[in-house]
């Protein structure tokens, strides 16, 4: 049922928008990250949420019959990260593993990130088997909320033949895009879904710039936001708002936001399966900022605005207000960030 705006002015629009975000945003964010041991899953997810949620370093064994979870609370949002390395180990008890996965993830997740090392020389059967299993367990709709991260992309920026670095890098990226696209076709994932799956090269924290992008973390963050539902996307935005650096924002604004985040109480991180502290005090390597370019900021605001508009568009005065105050809408969205994210 469409809602109504009380007055024909921008303040009414702003108040309705803030209220809608508060009602729409969920207070829980669930991330499933999977891939072979050693592909950088923990570092990647820690960079996305801005806290050392997942343990870094190699596990003693990838073979496990259980899916591991890590939890923390950021800005009032419960963040749950599920790690499933056992999918890529064919020596594990697949039946027990799948039973555990289906049970623990019965409530679903907001985004699935599948990690493949861009340095792999081919699309290994272990990854194909894991992708097939995930698709069978959760259905092809899994990929509507899925992102593929090509890790260690910074190691593919130099042509070994010293001829054309850019052509070499783009060729490596195209290989993976084509291989993944064709394999998902074999699994009967819809063409439209396959075409929309983000496949993002990611590197290390000291080399955020890759050949085709200024900042791979920004690209990954915005793509994860784009595949989430609007409710989970708003939660994802809230936990990262103080890290996001928008175009034309002043250095003072960015430093104030970073200071506000660092002053928050750092919660104890618990590995639920081991009931032990998984807190990592040394997280200086986690990037403090996620700079968005103008296109990324516009896309972010547009998606939020479109979702808001769906609720109010049937109101008699909504169209007239938007038409009269169209130039003010971007300003309204930007000016209410701190308000609707608090």
Automatic annotation (TrEMBL):
Ranges where the record places region Disordered: 255-286
UniProt keyword annotations, A-Z: Chloroplast, GTP-binding, Hydrolase, Magnesium, Membrane, Metal-binding, Nucleotide-binding, Plastid, Plastid outer membrane, Protein transport, Transmembrane, Transmembrane helix, Transport
Pfam families membership: AIG1
Membrane topology of this protein: Single-pass membrane protein
UniProt cross-references to InterPro entries, sorted A to Z: G_AIG1 (IPR006703), GIMA/IAN/Toc (IPR045058), P-loop_NTPase (IPR027417)
An example molecular function term from Gene Ontology annotations: hydrolase activity
Keyword Transmembrane helix: yes
Coiled coil: none
Domain AIG1-type G stretches: 26-245
Subcellular location: Membrane; Plastid, Chloroplast outer membrane
GO biological process entries: protein transport
UniProt signal peptide: none
Cofactor(s) for this UniProt protein: Mg(2+)
PANTHER family (alphabetical): GTPASE, IMAP FAMILY MEMBER-RELATED, TRANSLOCASE OF CHLOROPLAST 120, CHLOROPLASTIC-RELATED
The family this protein is said to belong to: Belongs to the TRAFAC class TrmE-Era-EngA-EngB-Septin-like GTPase superfamily. AIG1/Toc34/Toc159-like paraseptin GTPase family. IAN subfamily.
Protein name: AIG1-type G domain-containing protein
Species this protein is from: Pocillopora meandrina
């Amino acid at each position: 049922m469409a809602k109504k705006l009380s007055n024909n002015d921008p303040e009414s629009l702003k108040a309705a928008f803030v209220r809608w975000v508060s009602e729409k945003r969920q207070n829980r964010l669930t991330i499933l990250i999977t891939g072979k041991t050693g592909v950088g899953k923990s570092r990647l997810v820690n960079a996305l949420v801005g806290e050392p949620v997942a343990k870094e370093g190699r596990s003693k064994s990838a073979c496990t019959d259980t899916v591991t979870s890590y939890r923390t609370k950021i800005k009032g949002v419960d963040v749950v990260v599920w790690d499933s390395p056992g999918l890529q180990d064919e020596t594990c008890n697949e039946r027990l593993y799948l039973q555990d996965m289906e049970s623990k993830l019965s409530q679903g997740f907001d985004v699935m990130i599948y990690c493949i090392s861009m340095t792999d020389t081919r699309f290994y059967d272990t990854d194909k088997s894991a992708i097939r299993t995930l698709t069978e367990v959760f259905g092809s709709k899994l990929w509507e909320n899925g992102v593929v991260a090509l890790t260690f992309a910074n190691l593919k920026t130099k042509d070994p033949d010293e001829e054309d670095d850019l052509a070499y890098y783009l060729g490596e990226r195209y290989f993976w895009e084509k291989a993944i696209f064709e394999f998902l076709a074999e699994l009967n994932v819809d063409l439209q879904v396959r075409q929309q799956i983000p496949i993002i090269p990611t590197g290390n924290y000291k080399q955020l710039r890759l050949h085709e992008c200024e900042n791979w973390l920004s690209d990954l963050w915005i793509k994860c936001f784009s595949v989430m539902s609007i409710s989970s996307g708003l939660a994802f935005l809230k936990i990262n708002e103080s890290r996001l650096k928008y175009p034309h924002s002043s250095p003072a604004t960015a430093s104030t936001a970073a200071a506000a985040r660092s002053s928050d109480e750092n919660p104890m991180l618990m590995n639920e399966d081991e009931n032990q502290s998984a807190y990592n005090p040394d997280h200086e390597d986690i990037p403090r900022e996620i700079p968005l370019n103008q296109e990324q900021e516009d896309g972010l605001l547009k998606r939020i605005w479109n979702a808001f508009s769906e609720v109010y568009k049937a109101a008699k005065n909504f169209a007239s207000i938007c038409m009269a105050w169209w130039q003010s809408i971007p300003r309204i969205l930007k000016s209410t960030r701190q308000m609707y994210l608090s």
